[in-house]
Specification:
Blueprint (H helix, E strand, L loop, with lengths): L15 E4 L2 E5 L23 E5 L8 E7 L2 E6 L14 E4 L5 E6 L11 E5 L4 E5 L4 E6 L10 E6 L6 E6 L3 E6 L10 E8 L2 E7 L8 E5 L4 E6 L5 E6 L3 E6 L4 E7 L5 E6 L5 E6 L3 E6 L4 E7 L5 E6 L18 H8 L1 H17 L9 E8 L3 E8 H4 L13 E3 L44 E3 L9 H7 L13 E3 L30 H4 L13 E3 L2 E4 L5 E6 L3 E6 L4 E5 L3 H14 L3 H18 L5
């Protein structure tokens, strides 16, 4: 394996890469896998997935990691950049027969050092609730596969709830469960609750409360992934039909949609402040969608195959330059610097809120996100102000993000199709003045939106008691918006109340011709939106990548061979070594202060120029 910058072949596996923050390094001693470390034969297996939880362990090793490889599920203490991984001592290990784990999610709200609640979805459609610390299996949902017989594609706890969780299947259906309720011994009967364009929501029709509480049918084909907004109020779904659909989770109202350039969408994530959504999929692109404006604001082209995971980095996303850090020599001050990364991440969100609430734009903003794909490459991207606010003069950004005009779509994209709305005109929004021409990028067509009357929640009392109060943060005050439909035959159906389950078979799905959406606000042409170039694009694995998670002191990737890799952020390895040296070797105070001064001097010298 070769380090970045020293290789002669394009197919070399990189063990480090450099960004403006410094050098990210692969920690080979922190690699997690099956205990024998033998590469897994991934033919016909489900993607390797990774979940993290912190149990607030007083020993300082509070992070726990869960990952699936084939028919196996492992649960370890995650030591990250601090110590080498000990694969000989898993906290829990499970081997399943007849089915394979496909996805999993920890309940961070109820996790303690003595107990954690872990949901595991399976290829045969079941969902299991286990406690890997107690080595217990609490419940099995959809055990007889009466609710759905298809593979579980995504499972997540509802934010702010210890009992509610949402499950997506390759059938295109999602189900809302309550861990306290049973699933019943017969197939559920449903009653129509809400219907809109290419989605329906049903409640379970039963004399006694049972699972599932709700059934969502979204789009056509598999529902590949969903993600809750940071405040838990909205739900973003991506499907095999190539559509991103964003719903208000409480009122089950459709907020907005977006169409991929071609092919299915496979992954989705929210920005830390909930203002932007990034998707990836079979068009080899990452697409940035504005939640406020309900429109595509940028695409990124760097992958050579399908994009399997996208994720924002809350620890690198920046809003303003921090004041210079000065060290006074005391242990208390140095401990403050130990937690600098965490404080920065926490303060980033408040500064993002402040930045988005003012029109004066006193500071610059940069969002960092990453993506991995089946091309075995990791890409990092910066979303800067010249993309986010094209109607304002360009600021002097300190990033390496390039914006270029794309004259042709990626290979195989079928870019010769024409649409009915391919103009590059700009519609101004109230209170904003727009210059006649945008430097460095083509004009961006704003989505045509209309204000709608406030819509009441459609949850009945039995469901509303468990569903309506998840919000943990405050999103922005917003006006309800919806797209003007470019084709009248793709009409939106209003709220329908059905008294008979016989009417369920009458629900029709409207197919949208990709050639008709290209060039509209649903799917702008490549030349109509800025095209981002990745900051870095490195081959880091032999097999397709399936995981990308940003943590405070590292980022974590995983490939289909079953190897979970830890990449230390710039300066974190030496930094943690110094901290552990203070804790484990009991360095005298005078020597400790000298080491602190030397270490900070080293960081200042190594820091990239801000000019």
């Amino acid at each position: 394996m070769a380090a970045e910058g020293g290789g002669k072949e394009m197919n070399e596996i990189k063990t480090q890469f450099t960004t403006r923050e410094g050098v990210y390094k692969l920690l080979t001693h922190s690699e997690y896998s099956r205990p024998n470390r033998v590469p897994f034969n991934s033919q016909g297996s489900n993607p390797v997935k990774v979940s993290f939880v912190n149990v607030n362990d007083q020993s300082g090793n509070g992070d726990r990691i869960c990952f699936n490889v084939g028919r196996e599920l492992y649960f370890y203490i995650y030591k990250g950049v601090r110590k080498a991984a000990d694969l000989s001592k898993p906290i829990d290990k499970r081997i399943y027969k007849g089915t394979q784990p496909t996805c999993h999610d920890f309940n961070t709200l109820s996790a303690t050092a003595e107990s954690v609640s872990l949901l595991v979805g399976f290829s045969a459609g079941q969902v299991q609730l286990i406690d890997p610390i107690k080595k217990e299996t609490s419940k099995l949902f959809n055990e007889e596969r009466l609710i759905d017989k298809t593979r579980v594609t995504c499972v997540k706890w509802v934010p702010g709830s210890e009992n509610l969780f949402l499950v997506a299947h390759s059938s295109g259906n999602m189900y809302l469960y309550n861990v306290e309720h049973v699933c019943g011994t017969t197939a559920p009967h449903y009653q129509l609750l809400k219907q809109g364009e290419n989605y329906t929501v049903h409640t379970c029709k039963s004399k006694s409360t049972r699972n599932p509480l709700l059934k969502w049918t979204v789009g056509e084909g598999a529902l590949n992934e969903f993600a809750f907004s940071p405040d838990g109020k909205f739900l973003a779904c991506v499907s095999q039909d190539g559509f991103l659909r964003v719903f208000n989770f409480d009122s089950v109202e459709l907020h907005g949609t977006m169409k991929s350039y071609f092919g299915g969408l496979l992954c989705v994530c929210w920005s830390p402040d909930g203002k932007y959504i990034v998707t990836g999929g079979e068009d080899d692109l990452v697409t940035v969608w504005s939640f406020l404006d309900c429109r595509v604001i940028a695409r990124g082209h760097g992958h050579k195959s399908w994009v399997s995971v996208v994720a924002f980095d809350p620890y690198t996303t920046s809003v303003e330059e921090s004041d210079p850090v000065e060290f006074s020599g005391s242990d208390e001050d140095f401990q403050d610097q130990i937690h600098f990364g965490r404080d920065r991440a926490n303060s980033t969100q408040s500064r993002l809120s402040k930045r988005n609430s003012t029109d004066s734009r006193p500071v610059s903003v940069t969002y960092r996100f990453g993506s991995v794909g089946q091309d075995t490459q990791l890409c990092l991207w910066d979303l800067t102000e010249d993309i986010l606010f094209p109607h304002l003069p360009l600021s002097r950004t300190r990033t390496h993000t390039n914006v270029m005009n794309a004259t042709s779509p990626p290979a195989g994209s079928g870019g010769t199709n024409t649409g009915s709305n391919g103009n590059n005109s700009i519609t101004s929004t109230p209170g904003n003045s727009i210059p006649p021409q945008l430097p460095r990028s083509n004009s961006l067509p704003h989505s045509a939106v209309a204000n709608a009357n406030s819509k009441s929640s459609v949850m009945d009392s039995a469901i509303a008691s468990g569903v309506s109060k998840f919000a943990t943060l405050s999103l922005h005050d917003r006006k309800d918006r919806h797209h003007e439909k470019d084709h009248k035959r793709n009409h939106s159906m209003g709220h329908i109340t059905s008294k008979s389950s016989d009417k369920l078979n009458l629900v029709t799905k409207t197919k949208m011709d990709p050639a008709k959406t290209l060039g509209t606000t649903l799917c702008p042409r490549m030349e109509d939106v800025p095209l981002l170039e990745p900051l870095i694009c490195k081959k880091i694995a032999h097999e397709r990548l399936t995981v990308l998670i940003f943590l405070e002191d590292c980022l974590v990737t995983a490939c289909q061979e079953g190897f979970v890799c830890t990449w230390a952020r710039p300066g974190k390895v030496a930094f943690m070594g110094l901290v552990l040296g203070r804790c484990e070797k009991q360095i005298p105070t005078t020597e400790w202060q000298s080491l602190q001064q030397n270490f900070l001097s080293m960081i200042i010298k190594a820091a990239p120029s801000q000019e």
